[in-house]
Amino acid sequence: MGFWSKTFTWWNGATWGTSLWTRRFGDEAGRDDAGNVYYRSKKDPRRRWVIYDGANDGSRVPPAWQAWLRGTIDDVPNKALPPVRKFQTPPEPNLTGTMAAFRPDGALGSGRVRPASTGDYEPWIPE
């Protein structure tokens, strides 16, 4: 990432100011699989924040870390929560607005044709 984009943009990780403030007033609490780094305040451990690895999108924070950020659990997730079970799937970020978003049959961009009506529908006609 270039100097100017790091200086003036906040949507691709932390700006210089946020990085300096975090280094001075924050203690690293942990990291998740997506590369996001979680911090707690040195003075007040109840104050917590995340520095995203890439786009700043809250849906990229896993549910366990969301619980930690909101204060639902006191300790970091790998210590406070039970291990992940086999049937649990990893969380996905919000895909709205991307090519991976769900598009029903007949929607623009889906490439599929909407199935024909079955005939059991009667439209309302005002009298």
From TrEMBL:
Pfam families tied to this protein: NDUFA12
NCBIfam families membership: PRK08183.1 (NF006040)
Keyword DNA-binding: no
Protein name per the record: NADH:ubiquinone oxidoreductase subunit NDUFA12
Domain of life: Bacteria
GO-annotated cellular components: respiratory chain complex I
Region spans: Disordered: 80-127
The entry's keywords: Ubiquinone
Keyword set includes Lipid metabolism: no
Stored InterPro entries: NDUFA12 (IPR007763)
GO biological process: response to oxidative stress
